[in-house]
Amino acid sequence: MDANSLLNGADDTRPTVTGLRLSAFRNHRGAVFPLTPLTLFAGVSGSGKSSVLQAYEALARLGAGEALGNAFPDPAGCVPEWAGADEQGRRGFRIGCTVDGPAGPVRLDVAIQAEPELRIVGERLTGGGRTLLTTALRDPRRRTVQAAWHTAGAVPVTRGPLPDDRLGTALLPLRVAGKTRGQLLVLAAAEQVVVALRSVFVCDPQPQGMRRPVTAGGARLRRGCDNLAEVLDRTRGQCAKRYARLTAAARTGCAGEVTGLAVEELGDGTVRALLARGDGRGATPVERLGEGELRYLALALVLLTGPGVLAMDPAAEVPPAYQSLTVLADGFDRCLDARQARELVTLGAEMAARGHVRLVGAVSEASFARGVAGVTVVDLVP
Fold it and tell me: What percent of the chain clears pLDDT 90, i.e. is strictly above it?
């Protein structure tokens, strides 16, 4: 499968991250985690479940072209305490992923030096049984790595410098001409990885921010879901089916009788969300709801929306129909009771089965999810 076929959507397989690898990253040693459409990492505090999501988010940031420092604001904290330094005082870690898609399974592995300076010291992209890209730090005095990528033309390998604070795979579409079959294979693999990594929305609803009215302006739902009211209004106007499904979820997960969801415009031009009641109480502003109810509503809304509604930066050159949205939710069950958590994970499994969304979450306890069809629970121990 060449790069043009990938961009034109010639294959129905959407680029999808199907596995993560963590080595000497926080408390993980040589860990390999397969990812299904709905994967929950469960365990007590210190078991490493949040670290898995942190590594995934960091890869997503690098895949979007962000600088290494943005992906790892505290790089020294990512290195396990038991990991000693080498003779030059260097300490670091490795992370990687497998991405399935039109180009077949593609592996990306990245070696990162955290101390004394944050930099990528090695990167390898492999697919179809061959190495497509390698980078290596040759001269520590330079802020570049030496890259080599497969071309399969008159010159089988092309070499050149790349910055040591950017993911080389994300830069390949700007560096590879795409004239030979080898170059097209490299581009197809790189673009498949980039598309999959950029199709990520990190969700961490913050109830306190959700209690305040917001200015309506058609903005996309932010990470903390503080602008839930305006996005709810968009969902109501754009998709009656998803709005009805969200109302049904609210009826199950919120206390009291819920007959609908509404948005009220206030005198200062802001809007707030309301729960319509059928018990004679009128409507309840969401700021009066408990933290669990607010987080529940926000997560349900995320699972029922899509890339055009969420504050994320998917690959613009690839049609949405060929991208697979993945939601990362650390503390997925935070503040939720078992009934709410089970309803959310059931909703997530339903959306995942339709190919609408993938979910990778971290939970403190997963009894509510066990036995739900389509849900994979990965139990971690400290």
Answer: 67
pLDDT (tens digit per residue) in 81-124: 888 888 888 999 999 999 999 999 999 999 999 999 999 999 99
Find where tokens 């709905």 sit.
Answer: 38
Do the beta carbons of residue 101 and residue 191 sit within 8 Å?
Answer: no
pTM recorded for the entire structure: 0.92
**Residue-wise pLDDT tens digits, 248-258:** 999 999 988 99
- CA–CA dist 139, 266 (Å, integer): 61
| pLDDT higher than 60, residue 3 | no
